[in-house]
């Protein structure tokens, strides 16, 4: 954000499935700015434009550079400023956390191995008694 007037806000999505981040960004932004839209201070088309701008950047990051799948999780914090009927993102301060889904088979195998290890431990303890 450049120095100067305007209200500084932060869009926070919470943890969301990567396949649904764009809708969450749009809904959160509209919810945060609903009073400004109702009062006429901000046009809903500007809110949609700003959401689209951020979503395009995030799409490139998630799909092209991180290769996230739709089942992975993301959490987005995007600071922005509202000034003179315009939304400006502070992209230098954009924060994204990404969490990859571990395949069901991998998790099942890990659980199975942990159970086998536990059973072996119990067997050794019983033999010692």
Structural account:
The mean pLDDT is 94. 16% of the residues are buried. Helices cover 50% and strands 24% of the residues. It has four helices and four strands; from the N terminus they run βαααβββα. A hairpin with a 2-residue loop joins strand 2 and strand 3. The protein is α+β, with helices and mostly antiparallel strands and 129 residues long. The chain is elongated, with a radius of gyration of 23 Å. The protein has a single domain, classed as 2-Layer Sandwich (D-amino Acid Aminotransferase, Chain A, domain 1). Helix 1 runs antiparallel to helix 3. Strands 1, 2, 3 and 4 form a four-stranded antiparallel beta sheet that branches.
Properties at a glance:
4 strands, 129 residues, D-amino Acid Aminotransferase, Chain A, domain 1, alpha+beta, four-stranded antiparallel sheet, single chain, 50% helix, 4 helices
Mean pLDDT: 94
Question: How many helical elements?
Answer: 4
CATH class category name: Alpha Beta
The secondary structure category is: alpha+beta
| Cα end-to-end separation | 69 Å
List how many beta strands DSSP finds.
4
Which fold name corresponds to the CATH topology? D-amino Acid Aminotransferase, Chain A, domain 1
- The backbone outline, from C-alpha atoms, is elongated
The CATH architecture name reads: 2-Layer Sandwich
Please summarize the sheet with the most strands: 4 strands, antiparallel
Order of helices and strands: EHHHEEEH
Q: What is the chains' assembly state?
A: single chain
Low-pLDDT stretches are none
Radius of gyration: 23 Å
